[in-house]
Amino acid sequence: MAISMNDRRGDTARAAMTVGLSATNHATSQPARNIRRVWPRNPAVVLWDTMIGKKVVMAVTGLVLVGFVVGHMLGNLKIFLGPEAIDSYAVFLRTMGEPLLPYGGALWAVRIVLVTCIALHITAAVQLTRMSWAARPQRYEVKQSIATTYAARTTRWSGVILVAFIVYHLLHLTGGRVGFQPGEFQHLSVYHNVVTGFSVWYVSLFYAVAMACLCLHLDHGIWSMLQTLGWNDARRTPFLRAFSRGVSLVVFLGFISVPVAVEAGWLR
Potential cystine with 180: which of 161, 184, 219, 257 (Cβ 3.0-4.6 Å)? Predict the structure, then answer.
């Protein structure tokens, strides 16, 4: 009889342990299943919430914007070929893709992509800055800039100036809303509009300052992009630094050559 009672007690204990383990496994397996469901459903959101994800977004959007800047500079240089060359180029940009696309369709598609890239680039930059500040809420008593450049230290301010310039530039030479007397701006007469617009010295000066900010921003931005995408190493670092600086200087000289030529009277 005693043996029977002990057997029953052992069976009861084993049953209780089994129920407890089952409940524990159920409780721990449920969050595990939830964790496994997050990545397949929202990989972009998960990546965006990380610091490295925001840096990747800045690098990719920066690559698109650098490509546009270089292409835009090359297009602007057509003005030195004369009015017909630059004006016909403006018409080509609006008729590109016809008849498959409507008039200006391809140009507006490019604009939408650029606006999206700019918005993502700025958002990622602001959020990275806030994450950096949150990681160290108390500022350094003495801050020394070690192994950095002037372009890196001023990249935020150059970015703010560039945003203001983009707004003005669109209102000025794209829309003719500012910087022209009534009747001066002529649609698709790019040569006339550029010469007229840059004949005002302070407009040319603002343009040159904005292009200097663009040069600094590109110098730091291209180098950071190459780092984020993993294209740099100890052997290629000197070349890549020279490459980023060379591209930024070429872009700067290419853009300011137009207002300089207008102010010097070479374009009239």
Answer: 184
